[in-house]
Amino acid sequence: MSAVIKGGTIVTADLTYGADVLVEGGKITAIGPDLQGDKVIDATGCFVMPGGIDPHTHLDMPFMGTSTADDFGSGTRAALAGGTTMVVDFALPAPGQSLLDALKLWDNKSALAHCDYSFHMAVTWWDEQVFDEMRAVTERGINSFKHFMAYKGALMVNDDEMFASFSRCAELGAIPFVHAENGDLIAEISAKLLARGITGPEGHAYSRPTAVEGEATNRAIMIADMAGVPLYIVHVSCEEAHEAIRRAKMRGQRVWGEPLVQHLLLDESEYFHPDQDHAARRVMSPPFRNKQHQEGLWAGLSSGTLSVVATDHCAFTTAQKRMGLQDFTKIPNGTGGLEDRLSLLWSYGVTPGRITMNEFVALTSTNIAKILNCYPQKGAVLVGADADLIVWDPQKSRTITAEKQVSAIDYNVFEGWEVKGLPRYVLSRGTIMAEDGVLNSREGHGEFVARAPNGAVNRALSTWKDLTSPRAVPRGGIPATGV
Ligand code: DUC
Ligand code: ZN
Ligand code: ZN
Ligand code: ZN
């Protein structure tokens, strides 16, 4: 059984052209004029693009005394409804838990997946066992390791642990990811705010000023340089962090920055809303910033200093958010966005001319597929690639509302936003999963996408510059475990 996507305009990260796409056995088998297939998928007036890849989700994740409300079932259905055909979720070992045990847990959770998925492995503690297990994790097809510089006393790793783990990533050809916020300072500032009687959600914004993100981003970049490893910085929300990435790139460091669609569009005024529920529902870390920071992020997307737009989809219900009614530090951190990322970025990025259609594809799919080393299986409209495709109708519009969403939560942080540009068809490995917003997907259809180690290692510039000095440390010369 073959299908041909007919009459559309193909948009990739670098080309825009009219052609049909033939799909057979889950793969793209031909691209060209006047192709024939058993079934015709009409793309007249539409753009044919690679399905979205959201590299930053937290599905069915225990966090802050509760668990995220979307699991791999509702989460991947929400993804497909909006045109995202692959998610990369974070396997999160509890401190002291074996990485491989955590992976087993995430393998079980992902049995519900309706679209393809992969994992990053979080490093939330450090010893010889973690060092050893990191190799086994890469052999399981995971080439990215996440580090939290915040969440002190829970997930946070210290600089020595981060340096050891980054050095191990360098040896394994894996990419470290960081949540860059200074967890020590956040804990101090939060305690001071609570002591002064600032307990509401606005305290969350006060407790995490842009400086704590900028400081941590600079620190992570310099540690990555000393370890001689590339670095991926998740949820870049402010100019201080963005500026650190710009400078690192100019120095010749391979560093990528990922803003979220929420930070591009929502600002800090949300935390000062008179309705406490409204504000608490928008509590995530880092918090939303002011308009100047937003403009900086948009500029980074068009100039290429920021590489990927994700969501950090981490959805909690209003009831869960109310756990922090008396104390903002107890509001589970996280917002949704998986379902609306593409239509929002199209409507508020492509339509007003902030980014081009080709940049849209790069930012939502192709760039991250390359970074994570699953390109061109994913993120491409090429013969041989997986037929994860969207037929995108630029005329189709709707108003975002929780009432009609797939995500399991009872609100949407973009409630009332108008979008124009939505998928007409969403295909996962050649099968139509959604048509005009109506899902026809299947639990268990989603497959794990294995990703080999990435060849894109960095030389440590800090060492390289000093190579002639007697104090120079050759790359790899510092024992990775520190013992
Ligand atoms: N930030 C969030 O808002 N939620 C999950 C974890 C994170 O870093
Ligand atoms: Zn984070
Ligand atoms: Zn409200
Ligand atoms: Zn996250």
From TrEMBL:
Its cofactor is Zn(2+). Keywords: Hydrolase, Metal-binding. It comes from the Bacteria. InterPro entries: Amidohydro-rel, Hydantoinase/dihydroPyrase, Metal-dep_hydrolase_composite, Metal_Hydrolase, Metallo-dep_Hydrolases_sf. Belongs to the metallo-dependent hydrolases superfamily. Hydantoinase/dihydropyrimidinase family. NCBIfam families: D-hydantoinase. This is Dihydropyrimidinase. It comes from Pseudogemmobacter faecipullorum.
